[in-house]
Write a structure and sequence with these properties.
single chain; 390 residues; alpha/beta; Rossmann fold; Alpha-Beta Plaits; seven-stranded parallel beta sheet; five-stranded parallel beta sheet; 14 helices; binds 1,4-dihydronicotinamide adenine dinucleotide; binds 2-oxo-3-(phosphonooxy)propanoic acid; D-3-phosphoglycerate dehydrogenase
Length: 390
């Protein structure tokens, strides 16, 4: 029986892919093999020694102590692109909310509820206070051309916007999906200088914390509209406050409000709804569960943020999974240890990512003595060993 702990409510259409004869799923469960979560912050959590994997049903992994997981041999997964359409649609809504005074106008019109027959005339009289501008013909800068950024860029382009994009680390698969009407800009200064609207679609990492600061605001046009559907920490709060007060930013639309931004003028605050659609929740949960099952049952890795991609067809024997530091002489020590136990390697995969290597080894024997685990773990540099018996 594998034990799965859920730290957020996970879409049932995903969870039901865990066969109940083989999996126990609960929000509180001792010694879990794996955790599935959405935005729950795991940083203060003790990582149980039983934990083999963490699956983020979503994109951002800043709520997970990824480095600590890697040290403990815990594989962290996310679900790239699975909620990108949900976020794209809300970013487009954000573009419109920042352009037309829909929110203030809708709040004002409610105040007329007791005015009876005067309502239509009052509306025509008062609507002049809620005018706006159109997005057609305006320039949108998309910062981060990943799963979300590319969808936003393409959609905004079809709405008649002049779309420019910036992403020094863009993946080829994303480049192939980007409309050829979107202009690629090399530097952050030239892209911010041209933009009437800026949308942030980059991850929050130690490098991007406070990415939009005084220096970047100074590169922008006066009256720019800034959209942040990525993470609150990307924007320096006090610099934002100054930029709004100075008229540099005419609207800040964010899916990640906090105590300060909620109390600022010109801020449209949304309660982190980007991925809160049935479609995105199902897509993320299904992808997370399938990836997790493939890892727990067969050791294959797809869409991990800390381990290399690894897939090998199984034979009829047992499977040994080994994580080790990416240093010389590991494979020969591992195969000597297996040979000393009389194990014959049938098939082997060795994949590397940054400082770590991951091995999938199929042997001809179907049952292996679990003592092999401590023998392999005694090799300097090996930090994770698991045996999947046939
Ligand atoms: N509001 C919401 O509910 C949601 C928010 N998000 C946030 O959006 C972020 C992006 O999501 P996806 O597009 O799915 O991820 P992704 O990984 O497909 O795309 C991120 C892109 O940002 C680029 N990038 C990284 N650092 C950069 C920098 N300094 N300058 C320019 N580009 C940079 C990467 O090269 C990549 O192409 C997530 O990390 C998450 O924080 C994601 C999903 C839902
Ligand atoms: O996928 C992401 O990065 C998100 O921000 C979505 O978060 P959620 O799953 O809605 O808590």
């Amino acid at each position: 029986m594998f034990k799965i702990q859920t730290l957020n409510k996970i879409d049932p259409d995903g969870l039901r892919l865990f066969p109940l004869n083989n999996y126990e799923i609960a929000s509180e469960i001792p010694n879990p093999d794996a955790i599935v979560l959405r935005s729950f912050k795991m940083h203060d959590m003790e990582l149980p020694s039983s934990l083999k994997a963490v699956a983020r049903a979503g994109a951002g992994v800043n709520n997970i102590p990824v480095e600590k997981c890697t040290e403990k041999g815990i594989v962290v997964f996310n679900t790239p692109g699975a909620n990108a359409n949900g976020v794209k649609e809300l970013v487009i809504a954000g573009l419109l909310l920042s352009s037309r005074d829909i929110i203030d106008g809708a709040a004002w019109v409610k105040t007329l509820a007791d005015k009876g027959d005067e309502i239509p005339a009052s509306i025509e009289q008062g609507k002049k206070n809620f005018g706006g501008q159109e997005i057609k013909g305006k320039t949108l800068a998309v910062i981060g051309l990943g799963a979300i950024g590319v969808l936003v860029a393409n959609a905004a382009q079809t709405l008649g916007m002049n779309v420019i994009g910036y992403d020094p680390y863009m993946k080829v698969q994303q480049a192939l999906k980007l409309s050829n009407q979107v202009t690629w800009v090399e530097g952050i200064q030239p892209i911010l200088a041209q933009a009437d609207y800026v949308t942030l679609n980059i991850p929050l990492t130690p490098e991007t914390e406070g990415y939009i600061n005084k220096e970047k605001f100074n590169m922008m046009k006066d009256g720019v509209r800034l959209l942040n559907f990525a993470r609150g920490g990307l924007v320096n709060r006090s610099d934002l406050k100054e930029a709004i007060a100075a008229g540099k930013v005419s609207r800040y639309v964010t899916d990640f409000p906090n105590e300060e931004t909620l109390n600022m003028d010109k801020v449209i605050a949304i309660p982190h709804l980007g991925a809160s659609t049935k479609e995105s929740e199902t897509n993320c949960a299904v992808m997370a569960v399938n990836q997790l099952k493939d890892f727990i049952e067969d050791g294959n890795i797809k869409n991990s943020v800390n381990f290399p991609e690894a897939f090998m067809e199984r034979n009829d024997g047992a499977r040994i999974l080994i994580g080790n530091k990416n240093i010389p002489n590991m494979v020969s020590q591992i195969s000597s240890a297996l040979a000393s136990e009389g194990l014959n390697i049938d098939n082997m995969l060795n994949k590397k990512r940054d400082n770590i290597a991951y091995n999938i080894i199929d042997v001809t024997r179907s049952k292996i003595d679990e003592q092999l685990i401590s023998k392999l773990k005694s090799i300097e540099g090996v930090f994770m060993v698991r045996i999947i018996q046939k």
